Amino acid sequence: MLPSGSRMRRGEEFADAVRKGRRAGRPTLVVHFGMREETDEPALVGFVVSRAVGGAVVRNRVKRQLRHLMRDRLDRFPRGSLLVVRANPPAASARSERLAAELDVALDRLLRRREPSQARVDGR
């Protein structure tokens, strides 16, 4: 599981990540990424799994899978990061490997966008 200090619990943190942050979407999930102002706290991760995904058992299974997957990927983000992973309805029937692959693609997109743009040497 995720370390206790890395779990997002406050509604304002969810709102900041979703409203002010950037997002990257895949068929099974959407990841929202934001940064807290002037803080050196560890990155926080929150999960949103609505009833559209399925019943309580299915939603809890999807949340557990996503928490497990994020545990190994948390160190890729700088301190002060806010991440919200929102599951889409196809996540209910997705295998863990597919969730992992789509999570990696979404996280890579967000990290790539975060890097300062570098002027191309070849002029293109």
Record keyword descriptors for this entry.
four-stranded mixed beta sheet, 38% helix, globular, disordered C terminus, alpha+beta, 124 residues, Ribosomal Protein S5, domain 2
Termini, distance in Å?
A: 44 Å
The main sheet orders its strands as 1-2-4-3
Structural class by sheet pairing and helices? alpha+beta
CATH topology: Ribosomal Protein S5, domain 2
Tell me the radius of gyration.
15 Å
For the record, the CATH class is: Alpha Beta
CATH architecture grouping: 2-Layer Sandwich
The biggest beta sheet is recorded as: 4 strands, mixed
Order of helices and strands: HEEEHEH
| Residue share in β-strands | 15-25%
| Approximate helicity band | 25-40%
DSSP summary, beta strand count: 4
Counted up, domains total: 1
- From the spread of the alpha carbons, the general shape counts as globular
Provide mean pLDDT, rounded: 87
| Count of helix runs | 3
Low-confidence stretches: 117-124
InterPro entries: Ribosomal_Su5_D2-typ_SF (IPR020568), Ribsml_uS5_D2-typ_fold_subgr (IPR014721), RNase_P (IPR000100), RNase_P_CS (IPR020539)
Subunit structure: Consists of a catalytic RNA component (M1 or rnpB) and a protein subunit.
Family: Belongs to the RnpA family.
EC number: 3.1.26.5
